[in-house]
Amino acid sequence: MTFRPSDLNDLEKETTHYGSTADPRGGHNRILVLCIDRDDDIGSKGGVKTPIMGRDRCADAGLRLAIEDPEDADANAIFGAVKEYEKLLSKGYHSEVALVAGKVNRGIEADEKIGIEVNRVLARYHADAAVIVSDGEDDEALVPIIQTMIPVISVQRIIIKHSRSVEYSYAVLGRYIKMLVYDPRYSKFFLGVPGALLVVSGLATVLGLTREALALVMSILGGAFIIRAFDIDKSLGSLGRPTPTGFIRIFSVFAGVLIIIVSIVNGLSSIPSEALVTKDMNFLDILSNRLIIGNFVHGTITLMWIGIGTILIGSLLSNWFKGSVRAMSDILRLVVLALLYIPILQFTSVLTEGTNPFTLISSLFIGLAITLVVATFLFQYFRSRKGGEILKH
């Protein structure tokens, strides 16, 4: 096979199609076999620009990536897409194969780039169904987004067959350990957080503060979970390349976290002194005390919901300004958050006043019905917007 770098990204050339123009089984007429490389190994390692269309161009791209990095699974995924394309042709389907890629750091920018490239491919080949080929769950996370552009009728995962010997198993394990140690995307949490916990525990032991060490360890661990859950580390990293949407997200996250902290303090102050029967109550005694839990939740819920809503509104505005389909999920989260407010207040009344729990159950069912209606409406709305637009993710 002759590798022609100038041909890899040449989407202006006519694509040759084989087989009949209709599915012999009466189903889809034009099937696109789409290979996804979310972290852009084909570009960063193979030096090939995407999107790529056509059997020969995709095969040449996979060959170049395999030569540059024989251990990369994406090369096998590309060859798997070519094989799936040839299999469809042999069965009489009208088909085409294409390769799209994101960016090295993955994330929103990578998904947005893939969305643009998929639209470019669909503009050249008007398929009515797609078969997704990938090398793992990371690439397959984009399937729901691609489904908003074209129906996905099959997802094929290419799994590399490794030797079953113990030596090769240790070799594969060693590579993953090396990735956790040297890859910044993973090392900051797999090494940074445990390292901070060990340092705090060691210093506390030396200083004789063993009892306080538990509180410090829990605080560090909780802070790490919050930072990762709300993408605070990514928001701080975006300060080097500030954008309006980035500042909206950063402000909303910090404001929301501060309000949540205030809500917890307000909840603690709402616990009546008579509920604290004795100072020697342990954690299980507190959890089993209905007055303590009920009054704490009642004092926390309003500010807690405002804080969470602030974070979700910031995410919604950020995604809306970027035209991302993630805005639909943000709207649904806000709707669910609002619908859960009354049931939680009723839950506190059940704990503190012993009210009828059936009112709580009826509120939950009503909230579920409203959520289904809103979700259906939003899905239809965003689905109708995809025609004639570049859907960003």
Would you kindly provide a brief summary of this structure?
The chain is an alpha/beta fold and 393 residues long.
Structure commentary:
A five-stranded mixed sheet has the order 2-3-1-4-5, sandwiched between helices. The longest helix has 32 residues, at 290-321. The protein has helices spanning 41-44, 55-68, 73-90, 107-124, 137-140, 143-147, 166-182, 184-206, 210-229, 232-237, 244-269, 283-287, 290-321, 326-353, 358-385; strands at residues 30-37, 52-53, 94-101, 129-134, 152-157. The protein has three domains: 5-157, no CATH class; 164-229, no CATH class; 241-393, no CATH class. The radius of gyration is 27 Å and the shape is globular. The protein has 15 helices and five strands. It starts with 29 loop residues before the first strand and ends in an 8-residue tail after the last helix. It is an alpha/beta fold and 393 residues long. Helix 2 runs antiparallel to helix 3 and helix 11 packs antiparallel against helix 13.
Shape: globular
Number of strands: 5
Distance between the termini: 36 Å
- Major sheet: size, sense and barrel closure? 5 strands, mixed
* Element order: H for helix, E for strand: EHEHHEHEHHEHHHHHHHHH
Oligomeric status of the shown chains? single chain
- Share of helix, binned: 55-70%
Keywords:
393 residues, alpha/beta, 3 domains, five-stranded mixed beta sheet, globular
Per-chain topology:
Elements: E1 30-37, H1 41-44, E2 52-53, H2 55-68, H3 73-90, E3 94-101, H4 107-124, E4 129-134, H5 137-140, H6 143-147, E5 152-157, H7 166-182, H8 184-206, H9 210-229, H10 232-237, H11 244-269, H12 283-287, H13 290-321, H14 326-353, H15 358-385
Parallel strand pairs: 1-3, 1-4, 4-5
Antiparallel strand pairs: 2-3
Helix pairs in contact: 2-3, 7-8, 8-9, 11-13, 13-14, 14-15
